[in-house]
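P.,

For your records, the input lines for the assembly:
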Amino acid sequence: MQKLKNLLKVFLIFFKIGLFTFGGGYAMIAIIEREICEKKKWIEHEEFLDIVAIAESTPGPLAINSATFVGYKVCGVLGSVFATLGVVLPSFCIIFAISFVFDAFLSLEYVRYAFMGIQACVAFLIVNAGIKMLKHLKPNWLNGVLFSLSAIGLILLDLFAVDFSTIFFILIGGVVGLSVYLAIYIKNRKKTIDNQTQKGDE
Amino acid sequence: MPILLDLFITFFKLGLFTFGGGYAMIPILTDDVLAHGWLVQEEIMNFIAVAESTPGPIAINMATFIGASQGGFFGAVLATLGVVLPSFIIILLIASVIKGLMKFAGVKAFLSGVRPVVVGLILATGIGMMLTVLIGLEQIGEKVAFDWKALVIFAIIAATHIVWKRVKKKAPSPIILILISACLGMIFYGLIP
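Structure tokens returned:
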């Protein structure tokens, strides 16, 4: 009975979080922290920071990642199902409702004009997001090379309508990151071994 | 491939390969949706605006929206399920079985290569959208039509963003910028010949 109650609570909290956060990701994290750590005390603050770090470095939307994790911590696998369902459901219902009227809405002349203005804004928002993330990258040669190659590469592929999935870009980036790490690791190890043999010779 | 299965697989891939939150999914999504011929660039941008101005994660909103537009109710369900499942499974595994996964140096090294690529892709997608909006260019060889009204709206939005940030010490929320641009769109395209 207690478990059922907790499941319902988890569902409701994440439903609320899904319903009231605009702009996704980071806005959501502050609210999850307040609800889960401060009000309900289900999870320690430290642990929550770990969860955020994991959610950031695993694929998929941040909100889903943290909902699944917190849900699991609180009530196991069922908890994660309820939390994820809770955070998804408001979006789903609202957007599904909008999708019915959207085309009719767009066929109104002034709405169409409004959306022509909005398209310029969306282009700005995305360029701006890119620039903001670029500023947060550490200025080293690996970041520089990978960033430039992928940006220029995608622009050229789009312009010349070459079919090459962006997923490959991401995989190639990951493999390059791994290879650089391995190369440095092997180099360092060789150095240590060389040093050791030198010491042995003496 | 039946459309429902196609939606599920497309959005599953999207959920599996987007690292780094909301905007990171836009390049892959745009690429995939255009390749499928489900929507054109302008429609995607309209959807992004709606996804930004409604509550909830952008990825979920986009999945539901595109799913509904291509496959009705079940399309929306399968697209949303697709985008959620990879996260759900991976996080469940990390929380229960492989607790130390994020501490592996290899995972960190992989992500260190993914991060700059994602930034490059987002910026490239943004620039591509700018080209579409401002000069109507999507591919080399197409006719180019310069749209000065879009350029002025773009400039006003950029200026608003910069001034707002200076004065309020905080970037304006996307919703505010979207609302301003909607008004500008009505004024420029509706009232100015």
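Two observations worth noting. The mean pLDDT of chain A is 87. The helical segments of chain A are 2-20, 25-39, 45-57, 62-106, 109-136, 141-159, 166-201.

Regards
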